[in-house]
Amino acid sequence: MTAVSLNAVTLLYGDGAETVTALDHVDLEVEPGELVAVVGPSGSGKSSLLAVAGALTAPSSGSVRIGDVDLIGLPPRQAAAIRRQRIGFVFQSANLIPALTCLDQVRLPLTFGKFSDPRDPRELLAEVGMEHKADRRPHQLSGGERQRVGIARALVARPRLLLVDEPTAALDRQRSQEVVALLAREAHDHGVGTIMVTHDHDVLHHCDRTLEMTDGRLEPLT
Ligand SMILES: Nc1ncnc2c1ncn2[C@@H]1O[C@H](COP(=O)(O)OP(=O)(O)OP(=O)(O)O)[C@@H](O)[C@H]1O
């Protein structure tokens, strides 16, 4: 079963003469354990793709499935439950909570519901190389370290799908390589289907496939 499957997905913003086609008949299937990169110019629709795949925005037409669940027509409460149970999000800046230690950041999602097979927060922190800083707070960490904690937090509920938006935007070259290598390892070792939007062509060699978004259309990078 695919981690996520988009079929003929179109997303329009606005109406009449003001309509913007953010996604134009997008087809995408991401398998468990696969890391797929999406590149493309500003305004081409990359964030829109993550919003639709992440059950944050309903498409204007087409179908979206997370595993065996069809997102189309799901009431907002059920879409929120799918997000919590099956989807992890990693942002440009890690968006950590200033008052919490690294360990508590990773534990936090597990306090929002019951999960069938969560990962152990301390073991996960060790896996992302942050066990020795478990008691530190975000202001005591480097950008790369914060991103590692954000990745651990996104993975703790064992999501089927991980959506990653520009994870290296604030990092130097070396840290960027390390963070994307970590995403690839987590995807491969734990069967997480991962979509990563990036402008950073230097990290693409860690990815299983690269797609290019142009004016809302998604094609293999040539
Ligand atoms: N809420 C909205 N209302 C109207 N138009 C929108 C909205 N959100 C995005 N758009 C438009 O949809 C198109 C795709 O935007 P999107 O944010 O998905 O692009 P992007 O590739 O992620 O850009 P960037 O790399 O700059 O983040 C753009 O033309 C944008 O102006």
Automatic annotation (TrEMBL):
Q: PROSITE patterns of this UniProt entry?
A: ABC_TRANSPORTER_1, ABC_TRANSPORTER_2
In terms of InterPro entries, this protein maps to: AAA+_ATPase, ABC_transporter-like_ATP-bd, ABC_transporter-like_CS, ABC_transpr_LolD-like, MacB-like_ATP-bd, P-loop_NTPase
- The chain positions of domain ABC transporter read 6-221
* Keyword annotations: ATP-binding, Nucleotide-binding, Transport
| Cytoplasm in keyword set | no
The record's GO CC annotations read:
plasma membrane
Q: Which GO terms describe its molecular function?
A: ATP binding; ATP hydrolysis activity; transmembrane transporter activity
**SUPFAM superfamilies named in the record:** P-loop containing nucleoside triphosphate hydrolases
Fetch the PANTHER family from UniProt.
ABC TRANSPORTER RELATED (PTHR24220:SF685), IMPORT ATP-BINDING PROTEIN (PTHR24220)
**What protein is this chain from?**
Putative ABC transport system ATP-binding protein
Q: Which organism does this record belong to?
A: Solirubrobacter pauli
